[in-house]
Every structure is written in structure tokens, then in C-alpha cells.
Specification:
Elements: E1 3-6, H1 7-10, H2 24-39, E2 43-50, E3 57-60, E4 63-69, H3 74-85, E5 93-95, H4 99-107, E6 111-113, H5 115-136, H6 142-152, H7 155-158
Parallel strand pairs: 1-2, 1-5, 2-4, 5-6
Antiparallel strand pairs: 3-4
Helix pairs in contact: 2-5, 3-4
């Protein structure tokens, strides 16, 4: 089930991220890229107040970041997206704690996850990813080293 994310609504719910940071959007995008990769989900994240010259959308494998320019809000862009989806909207999940965004999502039968809950899911998925990576990167045991040396020889024998 693809996900629509209210980016600036989610950022303050994630420990270590802040709307005051200059690169808050990119920090969230990086986290969401890994989340989408690990969970094999597709997502679109919407951000308000895009500076002039910023592309309206950037595609990252399973994630599209949409930068909404002045004159429209991310909330309005999310509502427009849901409207364009029509009956397909029921196959999407909307992540936001904004009551109006949640109401718009429910009106088209999309699933809703509050940002606080999604933030926990995101962090849990990323933590699992880090644990798996650490497990893969573990050091070789003494027995494994001896087996490799026996198999391929060691430089000490050639000295």
C-alpha cells in the first residue's frame, strides 16, 4: 500500500530532526528512502514553502519528494493528490497528524496513520536495518581465520 506523507508534520515527531534545521527535508528524505527500501513500499512526501528554483518533485527509487511552492500548502497538495487518485485512494495510506488532512483522507477511504505512530514504525524499521547490517559486518572467528589461512595459505610460510 503506497504512502502519502505530510513531511513537515512528520519531522518534529522524529527525535533528532527539527524544522529549524536547514537540511531537515533531506534528513527526512534519507530516512524515508531507507524505510521504503527495507519495507518495499512506495511513498510520496510533501513539503511546504519550497524556495524558488527548487524542482517541484525529485524521484528517489521508491520515494518521490514533492516541494510545494508558495501559494499552496502541502495539505492542499495532498488533498489534490487524493482527489486525482479517485477510487484508487482507498489503496493508499496518509501519514499526518493534521486533522484536516486526516479528514480528507478518510473522506476518500484512504487509511490514516498519525505522524507519531509512523515515526515509531520508521525508527523501528531503520533500527532493524542497522542491526542486520551489524550482524553481517561481524568479525571472523578464530576458527574461520584459521580455515581461510589453511585454504589460501599465509604469507608467514613464505618468509
Amino acid at each position: 500500500m503506497p504512502i502519502i506523507i505530510d513531511g513537515h508534520n512528520l519531522i518534529p515527531k522524529i527525535p533528532g530532526l527539527s524544522l529549524q534545521a536547514i537540511d531537515d527535508e533531506m534528513q527526512l528524505i534519507e530516512m524515508l528512502q531507507e524505510y521504503c527500501r527495507r519495507s518495499r513500499k512506495q511513498a510520496e512526501v510533501f513539503f511546504d514553502n519550497a524556495p524558488p528554483g527548487t524542482p517541484r518533485a525529485r524521484n528517489f527509487t521508491n520515494l518521490t519528494a514533492r516541494f510545494v511552492r508558495e501559494g499552496q500548502t502541502a495539505d492542499q497538495a495532498i488533498r489534490s493528490k487524493l482527489k486525482r487518485l479517485g477510487g484508487e485512494a482507498r489503496n493508499w495510506t496518509v501519514v499526518s497528524s493534521d486533522r484536516e488532512v486526516q479528514s480528507s483522507a478518510r473522506a476518500v477511504r484512504a487509511s490514516v496513520i498519525p505522524s507519531e505512530i509512523f515515526a515509531r514504525q520508521l525508527l523501528q524499521t531503520l533500527a532493524q536495518s542497522n542491526q542486520e547490517r551489524e550482524t553481517l559486518e561481524k568479525t571472523l572467528s578464530e576458527e574461520e581465520i584459521d580455515e581461510w589461512l589453511e585454504l589460501f595459505g599465509s604469507d608467514e610460510e613464505n618468509d
